[in-house]
Amino acid sequence: MASDTTTPIDSLPNEILDSILSPLSTQDLIKLAPVNRRIYTIVLRLVQHRLAAVLDQKSSQELILECYPPSAALTTPYLFCDFVETSRLDDSGSTLLDPETELDGSRSNGTLGDLRSLYSRFRPVAQDENRRPRHRYTRQSSGLEDGDAEDAVVPESPPSLDVHLDEGDQFSQLVTVTNVVEMGSRRGQFLGHTNVSDGVLRVWRAWLAAATSTTSAAGGQGEQREAILWADAERHVGVRFRVSRKDAWSQPLLLGADEDPAVSYRLDYEELVVRTSQLLLTMERSASQVATSSGSSIYIDPRGSVPQPVQALYYPFYPMLGYGDVMGFGKVMEDLIKVV
Fold it and tell me: Which residues are in the F-box domain (predicted)?
């Protein structure tokens, strides 16, 4: 950091410095932080406020997750992610801190580097059209009215995916893509999307077996939690699963020590973990893109991924096209087909 010699900027009140620095993006603020200690303190406070604002549930921006084997890229639906809390992770990924004491912005202790260790936790949720139908069982109790049984809330099971390992395979790979999307006025309509991370989770056979044993030992109640699988080397995005064996009954009773039979596992999503500072930078880029867009929207089919975004219902209007101009209408349709 530069020396703390007195400069004319030190004579300015904090309110003026705040008004000067507030319009700058977080990326630009970080570049100005080393100017002197006072600027560093103001930048730290501004970034703390912005990190807290990222967690505002009133925002029109949403976080979506796509996690799938490469062979299921076109059939796996995306998942919306509901914010849970912010915490600081240790090596085991289990240490939690109160988000209000970390991001209230009322104090400026710590450093910008400390803020990088904060992670936002999200719970992936399935869309209504992708949820599996569940049977509703009525209670056999004389004290429960028929109407109460009808209105009883049945908890939804978490979204999940299946992982299959062929004989001899030591691992499987899951493509993991997270995006910040700006929601439109209609279902499935996004005004824009900005990528947070695009990586690959490598799920090892030994890890799956150990995770299944941990889940069984915990009795399925979550007393023990598996480590987070990270989708990138920088540890910006990670996913935590609950693992269960699908076909244990069909395996042979006796296996050699060096035999690796075909096996299938079910992975239930527990949480998505995103570095809060990375999420802040992505949401700022997303807001900037929406502000400078020309009014086009992107439609993403909630039933699964699409190879390319489709421009929906906002194709440019041709002023020369008359209602009876059949040739002009044909030209528009040809251009539309090329875009799609």
Answer: 6-55
Query: Of 319, 316, 338, nearest to 328 (Cα)?
Result: 319
List the beta strands (DSSP E) in 155-279: 160-165, 171-183, 189-204, 229-230, 237-245, 263-275
Which pTM was predicted?
A: 0.69
Question: Domains of the chain: which residue ranges?
Answer: 1-54, 58-129+156-248+260-307, 313-339
User: CA–CA separation, 90 vs 71, rounded Å?
Assistant: 34
State whether CATH 3.30.43 applies to domain 1-54.
no
Exposed, middle or buried by CB within 10 Å (0-12, 13-18, 19+), for 201?
A: buried
- Alpha-carbon distance values, 142 to 70, 135, 151 (Å): 52, 21, 16
